[in-house]
Amino acid sequence: SRRTDVVAELRRQLMAAEVEDSLSYPPLNVTTGNYTCILFYASNFSLKVNRSVLIDLTNATFLIQNVDFSASECSDSNTTLSLKYTKPVNGISSLEIRFLMTNRFYGVSARKWFTLDSVEIVQDGEKFAKFNVSGISAPAEYSFHCQLVGTSNLYPARLVPSNNEAKNWDVFISKLQIQGFNIVNNQFSYASDCTGFFTPGIWMGLVTSIILLWILTYGIHMIMQLTTNNRFDDPKGPALSVPQTE
């Protein structure tokens, strides 16, 4: 039989292992002096060139941080996150990925918003690919979060090729969270998610409910139009004659 202290120790070890597994690696932290100006995180950060060569940059960016981000620039209006990799895969000697963000004031909302305007990929210092970004913006005090970001048409936040070289690249980013302005205590601010309030599932439920409600209303209306016969035959009297017009 097991001793009580051994069982308790085993449980503590299992709980510690579960907590350790649940903890993810910290985000990439870009500082200017003693202040953090860019925070970048992704659970999967991968590229594919020419539809065949897969480049997984997740470990190099967040775990071992074998990446040079010294060329990153920060200001109150424009921020650039520059990630440079040396020999990320056979056949590519250098790779630089730039995330260009801006912080502007919009009179309609009477507040500042930051947007990720474009993503640039420079291969071997020569090949230049540029992507326009759609769907990545948040209030200036917030960070931005999205489950899927990339070149696929199915992703809620897309990278749209802007030149011919960009068509040779596919980008896959999972659980992206990025912030380039107004970072407090070296932590992400409240995240503005790319998924809106009305998700496809909610829209399907609303449309189905409206159709069922319309069928119910139509059925009740038809039942209310039914009328009963107000004339009956009298067995002691003459036969009832109902004109065809009635």
Q: Can I get a quick summary?
A:
Residues 36-181 form the V-type proton ATPase subunit S1 luminal domain. GO terms for molecular function: ATPase activator activity. Helix content is 20%, strand content 41%.
How does this structure look, described?
- It is found in: Membrane.
- InterPro entries: Ac45_acc_su (IPR008388), VAS1/VOA1_TM (IPR046756), VAS1_LD (IPR046755).
- Pfam families: Ac45-VOA1_TM, VAS1_LD.
- The protein is an alpha+beta fold and about 250 residues long.
- The chain has a single domain (about 20-195), classed as Porin, CATH 2.40.160.110.
- Helices cover about 20% and strands about 40% of the residues.
- The protein has 3 helices and 13 strands; from the N terminus they run αββββαβββββββββα.
- It has helices at about 5-20, 60-65, 200-225; strands at about 30, 35-40, 45-50, 55, 80-90, 90-105, 110-125, 125-135, 135-140, 145-150, 155-160, 170-180, 190-195.
- Strands 1, 2, 3, 4, 5, 6, 7, 8, 9, 10, 11, 12 and 13 form a 13-stranded mixed sheet that branches.
- A hairpin with a 3-residue loop joins strand 3 and strand 4.
- The longest helix has 25 residues, at about 200-225.
- The model is unreliable at about 1-25 (pLDDT under 50).
